[in-house]
Structures are given as C-alpha cells and as structure tokens.
C-alpha cells in the first residue's frame, strides 16, 4: 500500500507528494516534523521479497543494511545527498535522504534543448568527475549515471549525484529472490549503460561511459540510443551526429577525453574518475606550460665566445679542452631521459604519483605530494603514517623505501615492476599481489644495503592489463637508462607484446606470472620464476584422471588468449595420453555464450567433469562467462581450472564454487620456505598468494644477478652513463651463467637454457567453507577435505 499526501510516516515524516515510482519501489517528498534543521527530505520506499525462505529474507536485509552504511558514508561529500536514516518497517525498506532543491540535468540536455558549448561541457565534466572521484576512491560504482540523476543545485549551481544503482539492486534483488531465480543483476539505463554493465559486470569506468554519453548528448542534441556505432570496434560514432548538421567545433583535447570515456572496451577507457579528472585538469593547464618534449637548441661554443687569452699556452688550451669536455658531458647528460622524472599521468612512478587508485589515504596523498616536490624527509614521515594505517598496500611501502634512499644518501640500482593497477579487470587484485612480493624483497635489501653496499629503487608502472599500454610502458622503461631490469608483465599476452621492445633495448624481463609455452622461444632476455603451462596442465590431468577418476570432460577456454590457449593445448595432450576424452569444447570469449546450454550439450555427450581455462580478464567476456558456468553447474559436476581462477571472485560465488580444484604454483601451507611465509604474513597482515611469492622470487633473481655481475672499471662506468647497454648486458650475462642458482620463497630457483624455470613447482588447491574467510570460503590444499583438517585457525 502506497503512502499518500498528508500521511504521517514513521511518527514524524509528513508525506507531501510522490516524486516517482519504479520497479524497486516509490519515492516521496516529505517534511521532517521532528527536525527543523532539515524539514524537507526524500523518502525512498523499497519492496521486500515475498518469500518464506528465512535465508533469502536475511540475505536481502543484510544487503540493505550494508548499502545503507555505504550511502551514509558517501553522503559526507557535499555533492551527494546526506542519508539521515535507514530502517525496515511494515515489510519494506526505507531510506531517508536530504532533499536537493534544484532541477535535473534532463531539463538542460534533451529534446528541445540547445546544444551545450565546450565551456559548459567542461564545467559539467569537472563538477561530476570531482564527486565521482570521491565515489571511485571508495571503490564504489554508481551504475546509473543519467541526466535525471544529475541534479543542478539551486543555491550554487553545483551538480549533485543522486540515486545510486545499489539502491535499485536491493529492490530488484528482492523481486528476483521472490521469483526464485538467480544471476547477476544489471542496473542502468539503456543508452547510458556500457556493454559490460549490460552483461552484469560493471566496472568503475562504466560510470565514465555513462557520463561521457551525457556530454555527447549535450553537444549533439542526439540521444545516445540514436547514435550509430562502428561495426568493427563497437565504439559510438558521434563526431558528426547527423547527416545535415555536424556538431559545433570543439577542441581536440576535449574530443580525445570524451572518446576515451566512451570506448566500447572498458580496458580502453580511463580506469576511474580520478584519472579522467587529472586529464581534464591537464587540458586546462596545457596553455600555461611548455610541451613536454621541448628542448632548447644548444649551439656549440665558438672561439670568439671564449675568453681571449695569450695564444700558444698549452695550459690554457688544456683547460679549455677540459672545460669544453665537461660542458659537453653535462649537456649530453641533460638530454638523457631521466629515470623518475616526476611526470604526472605517464603511468610510471617512483613516489610522485599514486597509481593504485583504490587506496587513497590522506597520509599517502601527502607523502606523494612531498615526494613530487623533492621534500623526501617529509615524504618518509607521511608514508610511514600511511603504512601503519594500511599494511596491505605495497605501493606505499615501495614509495617509502624509495624516499628513504634519497634521505639516507644510499647508492642504489633501479629496477621496474610492470603490472596492472588501474584496470579493475586485472585478475582479482593481481597487480597489488605482485607488487607485495617486489616490495618485500626491496625492504629486505635496503635494510642492509644487500647488493654490494647498494640499495634497490623500484619504479612502478601500470600497464592496465592492456597490450597497447604495455608496449608504451616498455618503450618508456627502455629509454630510461638507469632501469636495468623489469619484473612483469602479468598476462602472457601483455608479455608477448613487449618482448621485442625490451630485447631491442637489452632490457632483462623476469615474469612471475606469464606461463604460455611459446614465450621463451627465441627470446633470450626473458626469464620466468613461474613454471610454464604444461606443469599446471599435467597436474590437473593427473588429479582429474587418477584421483577423481573422471575420464570425460567438457572444456571451456578462450582461444584468443595466449595463456588460455596454451594451457588448453597442454591439457588436451596430457588427457589424451592418459586415455581421457574431451567430449565438447566451448569458447568463453563468445559475447552471447549460454552456460546452461553449454553444460546441457556436454551432458548429452556423457561429460562428467568441467575444465575451466578463462584468461586473466584481458577479454571482457571470458572470465564472466566462466563464472556463469560455475553458477549453471550448481555443484553437479566436479570442476577444475587454471590459476586465473585463483581469485576472490571465485570465493564470492560461495557454495557454487565449493570443491573447485585449481592448479597454482605455490601455497603458504606447503611452502618449503616457512620463514618467508611467516614474514610475509606479518608484513602484509595476512597470508599471501602464489603471485606474491613468485614476484618476490623474480625480484630476488634480479638482485642476485646484480650482486654477482662483473664489476665495471672506471672507463666502463663512464661509458655506461651514455650507454645503458653496458650495465644491462652485464646483468644479463650474470643471470645467464649455467650455474646460476638461488633459494627463494618457492624453493630452489634455476633456469633452463630457454629461460624457463627448471623446477616444477605446482600445488593443487580447493575451495572449501571457512569461517576464517570474509567470503565464507577459502582455498586450501586439495588433499584436505576442510579448512579445519588443513589446520586453518582464525586469528
């Protein structure tokens, strides 16, 4: 039963009028009779599920309370309505929010409205990106950015962000549970909703797509649903919106920003509003600064320009020669690209910029600002405070270590780590997992100048899990002569794309995660501490065939991924050798993939097990489709898979993923180096993943090779200033020695001639219930039936 004008609700809210109605409930304007400070408010009424199942009711109410807390926290921002109260009453949920006096943007953009000017669009972008930056820094997605949810506040003209999609999801989820159906809920508005959001997999930059389409609608006067798309890329075509009227002239800079915001593939967009806002601000400041590549013309000194001294004095000419040599050397050195040049927005940082946008403590921001301005002691003090508040953040620790090197005046070598940090499609926090291993090794080295009296400086680079950006990162790192080696990249596809660039510049690459079989073919400067795909594939086959006695399998993989394809091929070879049969194979990259139908086809061919080899989220469909298979399976068939499934995404599937067996390279429960495992747990406030252990070993190998490389004489050191290949070649030769060997987090480390890890380190882990996990499930060694049997205790 709906509320009516004049009704007194919840004892002190007097209903004035109904503002709106939708599938999730109703919205009313009301007067708060008990609080004269904010008499006008908005009452949002959300339906509850009509279900007799107490678990369903409990789950929906838990979600409502969680979202209420989130909205209360977001309401602290001046451009988001404050949340005064949230509660359940009469089998309905209610949110009481601040009423914003003003008008929706739909009155400025839409039918009958004049097109917006570039200045108006830039102001709209800045206003909205500023509040979205706050939202995205909380790692929250709005999911329903549209003109009617952007309200122009009357008192100051500011844009206020209304109606987060999570509120609608509670109502939609309630209705969904009432119908006893499942699946991911897609929230949004057609035309403003990106492809990945339509498929129920929204990203932070899905909000940017929506905002970009609003701005394009403002410029063109055309609704987004009426704009054509490029059939080859899926990108919207908007620059000439109609055949008879092109839009007014806009600057190339604004066009570039909008184009990047509305790219079809989310990996091609800005990661979040923070990054887009930085670009917009740089556009506004570009007219006040010199181009980055500007260099003054340097004329060589002439005889007439030198002081006139008595001719014939050899001392004078010798002095002039030395002066000219030193001057020439100084000029050349200034022209050599600087390492840690403190350029904001270049996706590289030694401490001058936060690349991991999900963690933005004020102390960390102040530390980075101090580092950027060369106040390294201040940077150390701020970053130490940030480190104490958030132990799990490896970026803070690396920047802290780098700043300490500056303060203490310790000589150092420089390496880089290339990982995905900005892209939410990075394999489940994989970038930070890799970064933790590098940070832990750097901390150990710098504590006692462990490389022959030198410390280790680390340059962080964000390749966004995108091959195009990975190539750009490789070019930049190659041109910075002090960078002697690189730990990375995350995916096999990114690694394959950058290898020719690194080899052209004699830059050593050691990967802790790229496993595709073909990577080491004809690539002498590439090594990896993680075994190649055949090791994991063979372990999975042996488990499936010999332990689980499953001889017929349906296989799901992405043929366009180097990693997925390689793992799939090695699995087929081994399974066939054992006598197993793959009854059906399915392409996970198919955008119209139907998981229920796929399993049905496998069943019809007597398939009794499921093998999942999705990529590491480099494709927008493969990993989500693998999750659909897990949901459609409903626990009927045994599931096994590759290490791309070793993520929290799987644990969040809860009982649907129970029993899933995944092949990984290392697990803390079976580590041969328990000292490392305990130190890592202490340093990172919890147990670490195999990616952290493997990246620690990759950085360790780099450090050992630096320590054991041949010493350069004075002439070679002088030459190395101008020719980085001298130091880089020495490092490569040190690592390429036939007897190179060390012991790391994952045990003995040595390499075959190809650069592959010689040791076959592999572990099978299984998803089991656990009260010690925030998800209710965790990975333990597959030989255990439960977390208790594995010896897991909650700390």
Automatic annotation (TrEMBL):
Enzyme class, broadest EC rank: transferase
Biased composition (Polar residues): 288-307
Keywords, comma-separated and alphabetical: ATP-binding, Kinase, Nucleotide-binding, Serine/threonine-protein kinase, Signal, Transferase
Family: Belongs to the leucine-binding protein family.
Protein name in UniProt: non-specific serine/threonine protein kinase
InterPro entries, sorted: Kinase-like_dom_sf (IPR011009), Leu-bd (IPR028081), Peripla_BP_I (IPR028082), Prot_kinase_dom (IPR000719), Protein_kinase_ATP_BS (IPR017441)
Region (Disordered): 288-310
SUPFAM superfamilies: Periplasmic binding protein-like I, Protein kinase-like (PK-like)
PROSITE patterns associated with the record: PROTEIN_KINASE_ATP, PROTEIN_KINASE_DOM
CDD domains for this protein: PBP1_ABC_transporter_LIVBP-like, STKc_PknB_like
Reactions listed under catalytic activity: L-seryl-[protein] + ATP = O-phospho-L-seryl-[protein] + ADP + H(+); L-threonyl-[protein] + ATP = O-phospho-L-threonyl-[protein] + ADP + H(+)
An example Gene Ontology molecular-function term: protein serine/threonine kinase activity
Residue numbers binding ATP: 44
Domain Protein kinase residue range list: 13-293
One Pfam family linked to the record: Pkinase
SMART domains from the UniProt entry: S_TKc
Native source species: Rippkaea orientalis (strain PCC 8801 / RF-1)
EC number: 2.7.11.1
């Amino acid at each position: 039963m709906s509320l009516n004008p004049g009704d007194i609700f919840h004892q002190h809210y007097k209903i004035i009028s109904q503002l709106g109605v939708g599938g999730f409930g109703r919205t009313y304007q009301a007067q708060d009779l008990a609080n004269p400070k904010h008499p006008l408010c908005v009452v949002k009424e959300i339906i509850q599920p009509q279900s007799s199942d107490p678990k369903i009711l409990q789950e929906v109410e838990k979600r409502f309370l969680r979202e209420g807390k989130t909205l209360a926290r977001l309401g602290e921002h001046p451009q988001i309505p404050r949340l005064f109260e949230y509660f359940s009453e009469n089998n309905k949920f209610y949110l009481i929010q601040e009423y914003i006096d003003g008008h929706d943007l739909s009155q400025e953009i839409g039918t009958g409205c004049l097109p917006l000017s570039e200045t108006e669009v830039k102001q709209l972008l800045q206003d909205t990106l500023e509040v979205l930056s706050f939202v995205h820094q909380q790692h929250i997605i709005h999911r329903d950015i549209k003109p009617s949810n952007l309200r122009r506040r009357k008192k100051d003209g500011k844009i206020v962000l209304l109606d987060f999609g999570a509120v609608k999801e509670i109502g939609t989820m309630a209705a969904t549970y009432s119908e006893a159906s499942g699946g991911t809920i897609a929230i949004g508005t057609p035309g403003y909703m990106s492809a990945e959001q339509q498929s129920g997999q929204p990203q932070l930059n899905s909000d940017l797509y929506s905002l970009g389409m609003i701005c394009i609608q403002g410029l063109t006067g055309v609704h987004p649903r009426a704009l054509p798309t490029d059939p080859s890329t899926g990108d919207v075509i908007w620059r000439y919106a109609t055949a008879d009227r092109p839009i007014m002239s806009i600057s190339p800079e604004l066009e570039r920003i909008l184009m990047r915001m509305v790219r079809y593939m989310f990996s091609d967009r800005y990661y979040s509003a923070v990054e887009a806002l930085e670009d917009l601000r740089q556009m506004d400041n570009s007219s006040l600064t010199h181009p980055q590549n500007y260099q003054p013309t340097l004329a060589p000194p002439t005889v007439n320009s030198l002081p006139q001294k008595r001719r014939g004095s050899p001392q004078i000419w010798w002095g002039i020669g030395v002066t000219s040599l030193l001057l020439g050397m100084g000029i050349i050195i200034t022209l050599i690209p600087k390492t840690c040049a403190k350029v904001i927005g270049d996706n590289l940082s030694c401490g001058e910029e936060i690349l991991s946008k999900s963690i933005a403590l004020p102390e960390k921001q102040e530390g980075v600002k101090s580092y950027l301005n060369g106040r390294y002691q201040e940077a150390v003090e701020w970053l130490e405070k940030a480190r104490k508040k958030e132990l799990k953040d490896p970026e803070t620790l690396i920047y802290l270590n780098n700043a300490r090197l500056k303060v203490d005046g310790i000589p150092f070598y420089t390496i880089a780590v290339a990982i995905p940090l900005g892209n939410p499609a990075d394999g489940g926090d994989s970038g930070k997992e890799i970064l933790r291993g590098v940070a832990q090794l750097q901390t150990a080295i710098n504590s006692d100048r462990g490389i022959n009296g030198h410390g280790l400086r680390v340059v962080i680079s964000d390749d966004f899990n995108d091959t195009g950006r990975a190539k750009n990162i490789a070019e930049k790192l190659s041109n910075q002569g002090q960078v002697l080696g690189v730990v990375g990249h995350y995916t096999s596809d990114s690694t394959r794309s950058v290898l020719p660039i690194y080899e052209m510049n004699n830059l050593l690459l050691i990967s802790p995660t790229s496993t595709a079989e073909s990577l080491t073919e004809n690539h002498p400067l590439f090594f990896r501490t993680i075994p190649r795909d055949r090791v994991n594939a063979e372990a999975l086959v042996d488990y499936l065939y010999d332990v689980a006695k499953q001889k017929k399998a349906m296989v799901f993989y992405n043929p366009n991924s180097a990693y997925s394809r390689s793992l799939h091929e090695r699995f087929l070879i081994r399974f066939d050798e054992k006598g197993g049969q793959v009854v059906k194979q399915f392409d996970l990259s198919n955008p119209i993939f139907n998981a229920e139908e796929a399993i049905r086809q496998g069943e019809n061919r007597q398939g009794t097990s499921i093998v999942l080899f999705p990529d590491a989220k480099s494709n927008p469909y493969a990993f989500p489709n693998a999750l659909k298979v897990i949901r459609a399976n409903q626990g009927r068939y045994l599931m096994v898979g590759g290490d791309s499934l070793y993520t929290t995404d799987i644990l969040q599937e809860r009982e649907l993923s129970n029993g899933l067996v995944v092949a990984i390279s290392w697990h803390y429960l079976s580590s041969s180096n328990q000292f490392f495992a305990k130190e890592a747990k202490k340093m990172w406030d919890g147990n670490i993943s195999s990616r952290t252990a493997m990246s620690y070993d990759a950085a360790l190998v780099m450090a050992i090779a630096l320590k054991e490389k041949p010493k350069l004489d004075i002439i070679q050191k002088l030459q190395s200033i101008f020719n980085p290949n001298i130091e880089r070649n020495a490092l490569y030769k040190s690592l390429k020695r036939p007897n190179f060997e060390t012991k790391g987090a994952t045990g003995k480390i040595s390499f075959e001639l190809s650069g592959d890890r010689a040791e076959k380190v592999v572990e099978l882990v299984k998803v089991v219930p656990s009260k010690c996990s925030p998800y209710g499930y965790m990975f333990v060694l597959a030989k255990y039936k439960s977390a208790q049997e594995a010896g897991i205790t909650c700390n």
